[in-house]
Structures are given as C-alpha cells and as structure tokens.
Amino acid sequence: MVKRGAVRQPLYMQIAHKLTKGIDAKQFAIGSLLPTEEELCAKFDVSRHTIREAIRHMRAQGLLSARRGIGTRVETRNTQTRYSQSLHSLSQVMQYDDNTILKVESSSRVVADAALAEQLGSAVGKTWVRVQGIRRSAEKDTPTAWTDVYIDKAFGGVAKDPGVAKTPIYTLIERKYGETVVEIQQDIEATLIPKERAAALGVKAGAPALIITRRYFGAGGRLMEVTFNLHPAGRFTYSMRLKRHTTKKA
I want to staple 172 with a disulfide (CB 3.0 to 4.6 A). Which of 20, 135, 158, 240 is the partner? Predict the structure, then answer.
C-alpha cells in the first residue's frame, strides 16, 4: 500500500519507483510478466488509472513492454536509449511570453478529497488555495487557456497578490516566502473541452484540447503548487529540444 499521508510526489511515480526497485532486486525477472492491473491495484490500494500511469512511465524508460492479450513484460533492469528534454530555465517550461495575462475569476480554499488528492499528487485532507481564471494575450481577446492553480495553503497569501495576473505564482512564492522551486514535473495530455469551460473559452463543449499539468516541488520534495492549463486546439504550441542519451546495459 502507498502511504498517502506522506505523499511527496504523484502516486503513480511512487508506484513506478517501487516497481523499478522490485525489478532491480530481481523480484521480477527479465522476460517475466508483471502482476495484472487488478492485482497491482489491490497491492498498492490505488485506482486502475494510477497503475496505468505508472506502467506508462516505466514503458517510456524502456523497462517494460506491453502487448494486448499477453500482459506487461519486464524488458531490462536499466533504462535504455532515450530522449530527454533539455531545459535551461523555468520560463522554458512555462512557454508563455511576457504578454500573457491571467484574469482571476475565483479564489478559495479547498480540502483535498480522495479524487482531488490523486489528481494533485497530494495527501487526502490537505488544504489548498485554488485560483481559477482565464489566461489570454495582452494583445488579443481570444483566451489562451483556462487555468486552475492549487497552492499549498502555507503559501496561499500570494493568491491575493496583484502580481498574480502577470507573474508566475512560483515566482511570487519565492519572493514572499523565500521558498524556491527545485523540480517541475510536467504532463501533457489530449482531452476534450468540458461543458462547464466551453463558454469561457469561446469553443463548443467536446472540442479537442490539450491539458498541461505541472507540479512544482521545493526542497525536500515538498509539493508547493499544481497547475492545470486547458488549451483549446490551435491556441497553444509547446516546443522542446531533445538530446539523445545512451545508457549501457548491465
């Protein structure tokens, strides 16, 4: 079972780490199959979605392969040739130019229930300050994204800072509290615009979109902030440069 009360990173990453350690310790032999999704759900007491995300992460590292009707196979104990993103600053992760503005629509305190805790990678019962609003260019009226930001309540004072419209929240946290972001985890997924966001974004419900999730960690792995940016198709492009690294097999 994963201990949610001490969560420092998303559940699927915790599970991926535990499974990887199991492979390293030869609990799972190369060429053997992992337990089924149902068995892993029961073992770690998490949802099927969380198990699938953990396996997806390990497949991206070359540790596992999956075939329909067969199962998930252990391929190696070492990550193989892979492509990694090369970033030199947090602004490259954000990929927003200085002319974007966040118009805050609401700000409130929320307590994470089981569903929200899993979405955030948070402990159940943890209090967050949620800021919601529309991000758009200062030069155009068309919205770029609907943004949901969850801030650790210890840093919640930044939600009322006038600078929140133009300044990244992690920067405001650093200025006000002296806490620095040392790691960012980012996920990009294809999705559809939900009915409750369609009007604000000026598109039809069910239209294609990208949702970009970013988790900001401070020293010691503390989860400081989580952002969800919902971008209608055609209004945002994410660009990156990849470098190839090769790791020798044992």
Answer: 158
Lookup: tokens for 187: 């996920």
Q: Does 250 score more than 50 pLDDT?
A: no
pLDDT in tens, 63-99: 888 877 788 989 877 654 444 444 445 555 555 545 6
pLDDT digits (tens, 9 = 90+) for 166-190: 888 988 998 999 888 888 888 889 9
Dist CA 107 CA 103 (whole Å): 11
122: Cβ contacts below 8 Å, ≥ 6 apart = 7, 112, 116, 128, 150, 223, 226
Extract the tokens encoding 115: 């569903």
DSSP-derived secondary structure letter, 34? P
Task: Read off the pTM.
Answer: 0.64
One CATH from 1.10.10.10, 3.10.310.20, 1.20.58.90, 3.20.20.80 for 10-80 = 1.10.10.10
Displacement of CA 187 from its chain's centroid (Å): 5
Whole-number Å distance between alpha carbons of 51 and 66: 13
Residue 2, classed as helix, strand or coil, is coil
Run of H or E residues at 29: none
